[in-house]
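Case study: Helix-turn-helix domain-containing protein.
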Amino acid sequence: MSRFLLLDNIDVQQAFSVHLRQLREQAKLSREALAERSSVPASTIKKFELTGEISFRQLLLLWQSLDDLKRLYDLTVIAPN
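Here is what the predicted structure looks like once written out:
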């Protein structure tokens, strides 16, 4: 019997928020330092870390500053049948 995990957009937003916050903390970056590196305002980073809300463009900028953007891009590649 298979198990289904029901996720909604809020769950996914929060997961991305937690992941990027952990990466920021592992890199020993303050929100202000990440803001300088990514060009995303520190206030937006704080809001994202607390609520998961952010524009897609800003999410990509943060991801690029903390992780390999190709890992995120690879999620869009459909494997051949």
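For the exam, be able to explain this: The helical segments are 9-26, 31-38, 42-51, 56-66, 69-73.
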